[in-house]
């Protein structure tokens, strides 16, 4: 067509079934023009690696260095497990065609998986079970990337060894390794369903609340057969990763002690 970059082509009747698309037309043009006259051009593509955000990996590595174990559970839960965590299964996101009732709900929080794992593995530790995991949590309003941690003591503790204080120290250290300075204040907003109202705190970074630290309710501990006090934390990673970290500067090791 004149004045445009398009061309109207009508193949002969005996080629109607052969020439059906632009690739067939290009093949015909090349055959008529001569394949030997077409210059050889190697394909090009950029191999520059894309930008990656390593902050979550730094947080995981810091907690592993502090003695924590990372869990990799499924995001699917049973209504019974949700009820054990003081939540209503009817308010969770349901799977349309689940393979079984035990995997019929999408996780509304990171705590159920941590508590269930602790109930099965508490006898395999000497002092305390320290675990964490991260992933998407699902609500009727959408999904959020969340992080959760649990420190459950197997024996009676002294005031200096309280799980709440130990978990507080560890998460502050881990966040500092990522480049964040965390502040903790008494909780004022909505608490987690398994949180003790009198033993909970909000975690803030740069003046913005990004998570909560709390002691697990005694009634919930009993349901999961946890013998002594347990502390847990949840962090909204979507909110945390929107805050730019502070640069970390390494100092040389002193030459003399």
Structure notes:
The structure is a single chain. The chain has seven helices and nine strands; from the N terminus they run ααββαβαββαβββαβα. The strands form two sheets. Strands 1-4-5-9-8-7-6 form a seven-stranded mixed beta sheet, sandwiched between helices. The chain has a two-stranded antiparallel sheet with strand order 2-3. 26% of the residues lie in helices and 24% in strands. By secondary structure, the chain is of the alpha+beta class. Helix 2 packs across helix 5.
Question: Which properties best describe this structure?
Answer:
257 residues; 26% helix; alpha+beta; 7 helices
* Rg estimate, integer Å: 29 Å
Helicity, as a percent range: 25-40%
Estimate the mean pLDDT confidence: 90
Quickly count the helices.
Answer: 7
- What would you call the shape? elongated
What topology emerges from the helices and strands here?
Layout: H1 22-33, H2 55-65, E1 69-70, E2 76-77, H3 79-84, E3 105-106, H4 111-121, E4 128-139, E5 142-153, H5 163-178, E6 182-186, E7 195-205, E8 208-216, H6 218-223, E9 230-236, H7 237-240
Parallel strand pairs: 1-4
Antiparallel strand pairs: 2-3, 4-5, 5-9, 6-7, 7-8, 8-9
């Amino acid at each position: 067509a004149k004045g445009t970059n398009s061309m109207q082509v009508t193949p002969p009747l005996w080629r109607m079934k052969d020439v059906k698309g632009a690739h067939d037309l290009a093949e015909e043009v090349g055959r008529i023009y001569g394949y030997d006259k077409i210059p050889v051009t190697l394909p090009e593509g950029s191999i520059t690696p894309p930008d990656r955000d390593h902050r979550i990996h730094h947080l995981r590595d810091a907690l592993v260095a502090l003695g924590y174990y990372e869990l990799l559970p499924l995001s699917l839960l049973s209504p019974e497990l949700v009820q054990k965590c003081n939540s209503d299964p009817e308010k969770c996101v349901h799977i349309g065609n689940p393979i079984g009732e035990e995997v019929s709900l999408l996780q509304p929080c990171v705590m159920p998986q941590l508590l269930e794992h602790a109930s099965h593995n508490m006898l395999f530790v000497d002092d305390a079970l320290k675990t964490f995991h991260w992933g998407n949590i699902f609500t009727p309003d959408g999904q959020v990337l969340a992080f959760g941690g649990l420190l459950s003591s197997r024996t009676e503790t002294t005031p200096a060894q309280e799980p709440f204080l130990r978990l507080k120290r560890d998460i502050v250290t881990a966040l500092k390794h990522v480049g964040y300075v965390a502040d903790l204040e008494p909780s004022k907003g909505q608490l987690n369903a398994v949180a003790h109202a009198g033993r909970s705190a909000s975690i803030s970074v740069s003046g913005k609340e990004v998570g909560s630290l709390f002691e697990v309710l005694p009634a919930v501990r009993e349901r999961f057969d946890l013998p002594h006090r347990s502390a847990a934390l949840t962090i909204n990673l979507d909110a945390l990763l929107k805050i730019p970290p502070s640069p970390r500067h390494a100092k040389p090791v002193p030459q003399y002690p």
